[in-house]
């Protein structure tokens, strides 16, 4: 099965509600999609969101990286030579992790199709369902409470609450949501680098003192401030999840070595795809560190690739794969089934997506 073409397109999917964090506000999914075809007629698909404030990638840079650097490097290679493809992919251009992730997942899609199996089974097959949280965007407290109650009514048992803009006022925000949804719903807090280390300790301690029972706090301090994150991790009881601080296996190794966080958040757009994400999983397994699998503002295509990885690995104990649930519509055919908080894998070979609008 030889790679004969790599094509780039775009998708546009409106969000049901504006997505607001401490870093940005987004109203539509406007992503780059990739199709890799082979001499057998098989096609594999991938996706890359332009998340400049986190990865540095824009639509223009993703397209350029794929068309001018990655495509020439991979044309003619055999899908069965998976490691060879991945070495060449990652050496074709530095950084540009989102572009690499889109091509990586399309290659893995084809690789699993080649052997007639769902990707999650080839990667480890730990289970066939994944439970995800749903994100509650930063808004006035009454709106966030209403959004949280709506999510619970839809069947979600885990809420990820965006904070990081108003300091100690975030404590009242979380307290209001906890009172509204009750004790049976898990709450995760994501500061998106919005606090200093001292602020984070003060705010998280206040949440603990109020008995808000937070499952974890994600990336409380700026990505580069590992010393600050380590101070927070050491000072509070609530587990700290490193997100923007973890792009590569080397980043993961340093966080584990220095005990800068309790948990690692793996996102394919940060790692450059599944191949590098598997290395982080192996490191985490070696040292007994649990992982979350997350996503940017991605549609069902990229999130489905991440869901396959989550279903494959036991070390991935949490999932933040709500991208498709935030979209107004599903423009794709095939893939895992999304049922209000539960992602169910199917027996379809590869990732399972069989129709991408950009290539129809």
TrEMBL record:
Pfam families: MR_MLE_C (PF13378), MR_MLE_N (PF02746). InterPro entries: Dipeptide_epimerase (IPR034603), Enolase-like_C_sf (IPR036849), Enolase-like_N (IPR029017), Enolase_C-like (IPR029065), Mandelate_racemase_C (IPR013342), Mandelate_racemase_N_dom (IPR013341). Its cofactor is Mg(2+). The keyword Isomerase applies. Its EC number is 5.1.1.-. GO terms for molecular function: magnesium ion binding; racemase and epimerase activity, acting on amino acids and derivatives. Residues 142-239 form the Mandelate racemase/muconate lactonizing enzyme C-terminal domain. Binds 1 Mg(2+) ion per subunit. Mg(2+) binds at residues 190, 218, 243. Keywords: Isomerase, Magnesium, Metal-binding. One of its GO terms (biological process) is peptide metabolic process. Substrate binds at residues 24, 135, 160, 295, 297, 320, 322. PANTHER family: O-SUCCINYLBENZOATE SYNTHASE (PTHR48073:SF2), O-SUCCINYLBENZOATE SYNTHASE-RELATED (PTHR48073). Belongs to the mandelate racemase/muconate lactonizing enzyme family. This is Dipeptide epimerase.
């Amino acid at each position: 099965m030889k790679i004969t073409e790599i094509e780039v397109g775009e998708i546009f999917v409106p969000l049901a509600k504006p997505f607001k964090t401490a870093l940005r506000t987004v109203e539509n999914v406007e992503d780059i999609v990739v199709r890799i075809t082979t001499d057998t007629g098989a096609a594999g698909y991938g996706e890359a969101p332009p998340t400049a404030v986190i990865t540095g990638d824009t639509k223009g840079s993703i397209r350029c990286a794929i068309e001018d650097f990655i495509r020439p490097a991979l044309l003619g290679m055999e899908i069965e030579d998976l490691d060879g493809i991945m070495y060449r992919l990652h050496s074709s251009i530095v950084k540009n992790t989102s572009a690499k992730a889109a091509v990586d997942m399309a290659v893995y899609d084809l690789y699993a199709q080649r052997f007639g199996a769902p990707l999650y089974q080839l990667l480890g097959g730990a289970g066939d369902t994944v439970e995800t949280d749903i994100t509650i965007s930063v808004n006035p407290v009454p709106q966030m409470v209403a959004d949280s109650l709506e999510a619970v009514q839809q069947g979600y048992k885990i809420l990820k609450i965006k904070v990081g803009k108003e300091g100690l006022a975030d404590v009242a925000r979380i307290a209001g949501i906890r009172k509204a949804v009750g004790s049976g719903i898990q709450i995760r807090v994501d500061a998106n680098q919005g606090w200093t280390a001292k602020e984070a300790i003060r705010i998280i301690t206040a949440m603990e003192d109020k008995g808000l029972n937070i499952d974890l706090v994600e990336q409380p301090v700026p990505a580069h401030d590992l010393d600050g994150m380590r101070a927070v991790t050491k000072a509070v009881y609530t587990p700290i999840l490193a997100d923007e601080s973890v792009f590569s296996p080397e980043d993961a190794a340093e966080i584990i070595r220095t005990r800068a966080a309790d948990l690692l958040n793996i996102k394919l757009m940060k790692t450059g795809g599944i191949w590098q994400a598997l290395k982080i999983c192996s490191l985490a397994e070696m040292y007994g560190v649990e992982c979350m699998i997350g996503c940017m503002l991605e549609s069902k295509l990229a999130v489905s690739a991440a869901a396959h990885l989550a279903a494959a690995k036991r070390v991935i104990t949490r999932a933040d794969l709500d991208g498709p649930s935030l979209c107004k519509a599903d423009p794709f055919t095939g893939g895992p089934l999304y049922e209000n908080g539960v992602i169910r894998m199917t027996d379809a070979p590869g990732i399972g997506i069989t129709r991408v609008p950009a290539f129809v």
